[in-house]
Structure formats: structure tokens, C-alpha cells
Amino acid sequence: MPIRIPDDLPASNILKSENIFTMSESRASHQNIRPLRVLILNLMPKKIETETQIMRLLSNTPLQVDIELLRVDARASRNTPQKHLDKFYGDFERIKSQKWDGFIITGAPLGTIPFENVYYWDKFTEIVNWSRHNVTSTLFLCWAAQAALKILYDLEKVTRDDKLSGIYSHNTHHHQHPLVRGFDDQFWAPLSRYAEFNSNDIQSKTDLTVFADAPDAGVYLAASPDCRQVFITGHPEYDANTLHNEYLRDIEEDLEPVLPVNYFPNDDANQAPRAIWRSHGNLLYNNWLNYCVYQVTPYDLTDLK
């Protein structure tokens, strides 16, 4: 939460220049406060696991957040009980007339499938285009980031022969920007994808700012100038064992996966992995929620354009 300080306090401008979360007395006295409304489109197979991971990060803030879960595929799930889906997940038709403070669209295990062959591609495209005018800020994760870059910028993904799987070290850029406030110069983040985007391509072909990338994995974090679209090509929400479980799944499906890099101690899959990215994940979600949503969303969401 922001600290409330007098308008003319000398520290005010200094703190603002350092992107410290401050609020002037004059603004605070006129501030209306309400819960933030955040919509989550969960495309992952194990929906209960994914929703828990994301909500864990969203809960690590003093801001009050109301969550609504959304699905795009009405087919029966092999990994989530139907009762759970029917009880907790809504359909797009029911919510599309509403406005939202924030929107999170998860990844999906569709890395090697052409976009046009995805079962729900048309509906997904409609949702992404709808979000531009009905959501203050949308956070696209992994596959959703790849798909949204295609829809919004006609940017083609480069599909690798080998999967980027493991914990990768990324470099932070534009430290003065609130989205990466508090980031170390380098940080670790989980990746699990076949696609990659080159920083030079994104910067030359779009208006996006690249805030983090890795020499061996490409762009990790990018955003539009107004931060209404934020793209994360990894999974800061992952638990310690998530990549392990995906590795075992790929083995069972005869995909001959490579061992996730920088993940198992001594590269021994029999040893328990350790999470070394939690602080980054929490900070990224906090910055997004505070600066891209809370600080700019209108009190009356009907005013959102």
C-alpha cells in the first residue's frame, strides 16, 4: 500500500523519482476505495493447481482483490473435476458486458500446435480483443503471451526444436519503470515453452518495451507503453515441483524431454528441486497489481475506455 505524505514534503518528489509507492494528502482525502476486480482465464489442464498458484501471488498484497474464474473450453477436463468447473468457472458470454480492473490469462500446453489449429482460437481471439477496451491491464502468461503477440501485433513466434524448460537467469532493463521496481539486475524465473521472441524483433516491430530477457531464452517480460498489456513468457507462479511434474508427464507421453536446466540439484532428477524464483514472482505480481491496475483504474469501472 502507498504511504500517505504531505503534498509539499521535500521527500515527496524524491520518493516519486525512486518509484516509491506514495500518495499525497490531497489525493488521499478524495480517494474512494473498493476491491479490485480481477478476472482469471485459466487455460492450464490442472486448473485447481494453477488457480491456487496465481491466487497465492495475488494474495501477497494488502489490496483487496475479488477473483472471478473464467474458462473458454466447455469440453470435459481430464485433470479437473467437472463439479469444480461448473461451480467456480464462468463462461465469457456471461461476463463480457462487464468491466474489470485486471485480467490474467494463463499459459496452455499448446506450444507446438499452430495457433489456427487450437480448438478455441476464435473465441480466444475475441477475448483478447475484448480485453483491450474492457480491462485496465491484462497479464498474459507463457502461451497466452505468444498468442496475444500474434493477435495484437501480428508477431510470429519462433518455435524451437527443443523445449526451453528450467530456471533461467534474466537481465532487468529500465529499472526506473514501476513494473520492475525493486528487481535485481539479474533474477531467476521458470520457463516451460517451445517458442521464443527476440528482443530486437519486438523492439523494432512493436511499441512494446522489453523489461527483462535472457541471452539463451529471449524476451521474458514486455509491456505496452500504458501497461494495459503485459507479457510474461514464463511462469513466475510455478511451485517448486511444477517443472518436475511436467518433466514426468513428458516422459510418460514419450516426448523424450531434456532435463530442466538449473533445476534439480546436481542435475539429479531424484533430488528435490528448490524454488529460487518466489521473491521475483511475488514482486512482479505486486508491481503489476499496484502500478498497472490499482494506481490507474477508475473508481467507476464504467468510465473505462
From TrEMBL:
Annotated catalytic residues: C142 (acyl-thioester intermediate), H235 (proton acceptor), E237
Protein's recorded name: Homoserine O-succinyltransferase
HAMAP family in alphabetical order: MetA_acyltransf
Organism: Psychromonas arctica
Pathway(s) where this gene product acts: Amino-acid biosynthesis; L-methionine biosynthesis via de novo pathway; O-succinyl-L-homoserine from L-homoserine: step 1/1
Main function: Transfers a succinyl group from succinyl-CoA to L-homoserine, forming succinyl-L-homoserine.
Catalytic activity from the UniProt record: L-homoserine + succinyl-CoA = O-succinyl-L-homoserine + CoA
UniProtKB keywords: Acyltransferase, Amino-acid biosynthesis, Cytoplasm, Methionine biosynthesis, Transferase
Site, as annotated: Important for substrate specificity: S192
A Pfam family this chain is assigned to: HTS
Listed GO MF terms: homoserine O-succinyltransferase activity
SUPFAM superfamilies linked to this entry: Class I glutamine amidotransferase-like (SSF52317)
